[in-house]
Each structure stands twice: as structure tokens, then as C-alpha cells.
């Protein structure tokens, strides 16, 4: 009976294809910075995200296996140290070939006008999909020195949304942790708004939710610089993500 149950559950576990490993080593810079134990967990997470996510191509895009694997791996980085194996209430991942234009034309007084919504690299919806530009996702995986990664950014929003409020404060352990987070992040946010930040780009000053998403990008992509310029913020993110990327090999120049 036990053997039968083991066989049943083993068939249901998502499988990490061995051919994905060299692909990720080549195309996802952060993969080579992980310890063997981290790689083992990452492979499980990548397999789950790859197999269990509903993938949707946009604008006739050829959404290949490699694209799904690379996006899954980047999203998995955020879950690596958390007690989560998935992003709850994620309905799908929609992938555009390049810049996302969600604007449309509409009629006013008999004249056709264009919606001026600016082009996007990504978008996260509460209890809905994550929308990504493949061009931006591919660039972020290979060039962390730029400090930007659209997959990290949008999936950080998904973590922020877990408590039902998109306010830049994800679910934390207790009230003291929440107070400390708000104090540290508010100070860093105000610094960005005052154009005094040496490491966080101006978009982080849009609102607290965007601050958390941008800070997440920098935490994983430029951890040494973040720890140097914003040590308290780095410590809050290190505690939340349960990862210390500044102590990993910095194969892209130690930024």
C-alpha cells in the first residue's frame, strides 16, 4: 500500500529536466552563484513554476520552452528562502515579445484619440496574471549589473499582495518586524523622493509598492552596493527573503 502511494505521489511531482541546467548556467547569471543546497531547492521551484503555471503568449508570440524555463527560474529566486513553493492566486503569466502597449483608441466628440498609457516592461495584477516583456525578462537574466529585472519586480509585487494590500509591506513575522520595516523603508523611500539615493533609481519613489519592487531588484542584482549605501534596507530585505546575496560570488563585477 505504501509503495503504491509513493508511486502515485512521485508521478505527480513536477520534474526538473536535466537539460535545463546548462541552459540556466548560460542564460541566468545568478544560477552559478548558488550553493548546491540552493540549486536543489531552485530546481524544485523551477519545475513547479514551469509545469503548474498557466502560460499565455500575447500578440502571436512563440512562447517556447526555454522562455518559460528562464522566467520560472527568475521568479523562483524570490521564493528560494521563503516558506512558499508558489505564488498564491497567480492565474497566469502572459508574455509579450517586447514592449507591452496596453493603450487603445477611443472616440471623443467624433474624433479618435489614443490612450496615452506609456509602454510597459511588465505588470502584476492582484489575484490575476503577471504580464511580462520577453525582451526585458531576457535582458534582466543576463545583465544584473544594470540593476533592473522585470521578473523580480513584478513577482515582488505578487509577494506584496499576499496580505491583500499592495502597500510595499509584504507579510512579516510580527508587529515589531512590521514597525521596523515601515521605519526603514519609509526613510529610504523619502531619500529617493528627495533624489538623495545612490543606488535606488527614481522610479522607486513612485509609491511604497514600487519602492519595494525596485528595492527587490537591487537587492538581488546589486547587493554589495545596496548593503554599502542602504545597510538597514539591505538587512530588512535579507531578513524577509532569508537570503544574503552580497555574500554570494559576484560574477558580474561585484556590484
Briefly characterize the structure.
The protein is of the alpha/beta class. It contains 10 helices and 6 strands; from the N terminus they run H-H-H-E-H-E-E-E-E-E-H-H-H-H-H-H.
For the record, what CATH class applies?
Answer: Alpha Beta
Poorly predicted runs are 104-110
**Separation of the first and last Cα atoms:** 54 Å
Share of helical residues: 40-55%
Instruction: Please state the second-level CATH architecture.
Output: 3-Layer(aba) Sandwich
* Count of helical stretches: 10
What does this structure look like?
It is a single chain. Helix content is 48%, strand content 9%. It has 10 helices and 6 strands. The protein is an alpha/beta fold and 255 residues long. The chain has one domain (18-102, 116-247): 3-Layer(aba) Sandwich (Collagenase (Catalytic Domain)), CATH 3.40.390. The longest helix is centred in the C-terminal third of the chain and has 19 residues, at 175-193. It is globular and about 45 Å long. It has a 4-stranded mixed sheet. Strands 3-4 form a two-stranded antiparallel ribbon. It has helices at 2-12, 20-27, 36-52, 65-79, 134-142, 150-160, 175-193, 208-221, 223-229, 231-241; strands spanning 55-57, 93-96, 105-108, 111-114, 122-124, 130-133. Helix 3 packs across helix 4, helix 4 packs across helix 6 and helix 6 (150-160) packs across helix 8.
Amino acid at each position: 500500500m505504501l509503495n503504491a502511494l509513493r508511486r502515485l505521489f512521485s508521478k505527480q511531482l513536477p520534474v526538473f529536466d536535466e537539460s535545463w541546467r546548462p541552459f540556466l548556467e548560460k542564460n541566468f547569471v545568478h544560477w552559478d552563484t548558488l550553493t548546491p543546497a540552493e540549486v536543489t531547492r531552485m530546481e524544485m521551484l523551477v519545475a513547479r513554476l514551469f509545469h503548474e503555471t498557466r502560460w499565455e503568449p500575447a500578440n502571436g508570440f512563440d512562447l517556447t520552452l526555454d522562455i518559460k524555463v528562464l522566467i520560472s527560474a527568475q521568479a523562483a529566486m524570490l521564493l528560494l528562502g521563503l516558506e512558499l513553493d508558489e505564488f498564491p492566486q497567480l492565474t497566469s503569466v502572459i508574455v509579450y515579445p517586447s514592449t507591452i502597449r496596453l493603450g487603445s483608441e477611443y472616440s471623443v466628440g467624433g474624433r479618435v484619440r489614443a490612450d496615452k498609457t506609456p509602454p510597459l516592461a511588465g505588470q502584476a495584477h492582484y489575484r490575476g496574471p503577471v504580464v511580462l516583456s520577453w525582451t526585458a525578462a531576457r535582458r534582466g537574466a543576463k545583465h544584473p549589473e544594470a540593476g533592473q529585472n522585470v521578473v523580480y519586480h513584478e513577482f515582488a509585487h505578487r509577494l506584496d499582495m499576499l496580505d491583500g494590500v499592495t502597500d510595499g509591506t509584504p507579510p512579516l513575522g510580527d508587529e515589531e518586524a512590521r514597525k521596523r520595516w515601515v521605519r526603514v523603508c519609509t526613510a529610504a523611500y523619502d531619500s529617493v523622493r528627495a533624489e538623495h539615493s545612490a543606488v535606488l533609481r527614481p522610479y522607486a519613489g513612485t509609491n511604497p509598492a514600487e519602492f519595494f519592487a525596485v528595492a527587490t531588484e537591487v537587492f538581488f542584482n546589486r547587493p554589495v552596493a545596496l548593503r554599502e549605501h542602504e545597510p538597514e534596507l539591505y538587512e530588512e530585505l535579507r531578513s524577509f527573503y532569508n537570503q544574503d546575496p552580497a555574500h554570494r560570488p559576484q560574477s558580474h563585477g561585484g556590484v
